[in-house]
Amino acid sequence: MTTAVVVIVCCAVGTIALKAAGPVLLGGRALPARVDAVVRLAGPALLAALVATNTFSSSGALTVDARVVGLGVAAVAIRFGAPALLVVVLAAAATALVRLAT
Amino acid sequence: VTEERGYASGARAVVPLAIAVGAFGVSFGVLARAGGFDGAEAVVMSVTTFAGSAQFAAISVLSDRGTAAAAITAALLLNARYVPIGITVAPWLTGGFWSRLGHAHLTVDESWAIAAEGEGRFNPRVLFAAGAVIWLAWVLGTAVGVIFGNLVGDPNQLGFDAAFPALFLTLLVPQLRGVNLRRPFDVRSRPLLAAVGGAAISLALTPFVPAGVPIVAAVAACAVGLLPAEDRR
After folding, report:
1. pTM for the model
2. How do residues B67-123 score in pLDDT, each as one tens digit?
3. Which residue, B35, B80, B206, B221, shows the most beta carbons closer than 10 Å to its own?
4. pLDDT for A5-37, tens place per residue?
């Protein structure tokens, strides 16, 4: 087998196993109350981590670049009740403009 | 009473992100060819692995003459976050084995985030539809990149990389409704503690651990859910 085939098969099987672990083993069952109190906070914790790392990290380093402006514009747009589509477009446009200008 | 969201609503909600995902799919197709994959292999990887950052990581390791083991390790570390993500959606997936496996495969950051309805609830129809649209965009984008080469240029030049944190912020804010800053330890304020803790943990670890690990570690912030409840009103 070529390297490519080995990588493709292992990544596919491994990723599906990671994604399916919860749904297949625990699917459809309510979690015990104490576990639920923890798991329901995974939404905000993971979303905030995704916001933070998608804005401030690049190739394993902390960085501040044009994405910060995009996120700032997004925050203002959310504050004024803009729909998600507009927030996303404004963030991308602001980031592109900063990159164009620098 | 809020109207319950269905498949169509999930598909619609994810369209702006699907455009960005498609553009990154094109880049992946181009880079996969450059990294030694043939066109079919690149498309098969997008169909089966369906995890953007992990696929980019695997390709970049191989392009740097890394081993298959190193490429696989990098990809799976990046995808380790799908274990806690899978646990959050599990109680809402009530179908049989194949249905749950299908929903799991279509779970990516974007579909999971759009399916969240606050207080730990998830909408399986929105998860499925949004995931399917993202999957289609990612696979078609990969095929376009493989066949036509780089039509879109660098998606980052168009600011598409900033679309993702913007979307995640859009979806985080409603989860913080009910937070009372004067009672930070109240049960209703805990999502804010978890969010601040998760962001802080992920950034603090970023320079020191392999990519992907900081996001998994952010889940530790959920431990604030174990604090005793304040009884006073």
Report:
1. 0.86
2. 899 899 989 988 989 999 999 999 999 999 999 999 999 999 999 999 998 888 999
3. B221
4. 999 999 999 999 999 999 999 888 888 888 888
Cα-atom radius of gyration of chain B, to the nearest Å?
19
Q: Across the A/B interface, how many CB contacts are shorter than 8 Å? A: 311
Average pLDDT over residues B197-218: 92
Query: Which residue in B61, B62, B87, B123 has the most chain A C-beta atoms within 10 A of its own C-beta, making it the best mutation to test that interface?
Result: B87
Q: Does residue B125 contact residue A52 with C-beta atoms inside 8 Å?
A: no
Q: A64 at the B interface (CB within 8 A)?
A: no
Pick the residue from chain A with its C-alpha nearest to B164. Answer: A54
Instruction: State how far residue A41 is from chain B, nearest Cα, in angstroms.
Output: 5
**d(Cα A56, Cα B54) in Å, to the nearest integer?**
18
Check if the beta carbon of residue A42 is closer than 8 Å to that of residue B197. Answer: no
The count of other CB atoms within 10 Å of the CB of residue B185 is 13
**CA angle centred on B23, ends A55 and B152, rounded to 5°:** 110
Nearest CA in chain A to B87: A22
Contact B160, A67 (CB under 8 A): no
C-alpha–C-alpha distance, residues A23 and B195, integer Å = 24
Top pLDDT among B151 and B4 is at B4
The rounded distance, in Å, linking the Cα atoms of A21 and B207 is 29
By the CB < 8 Å criterion, does A33 face chain B? no
Which residue, among A53, A8, A59, has the nearest Cα to B216 in the 3D structure? A53
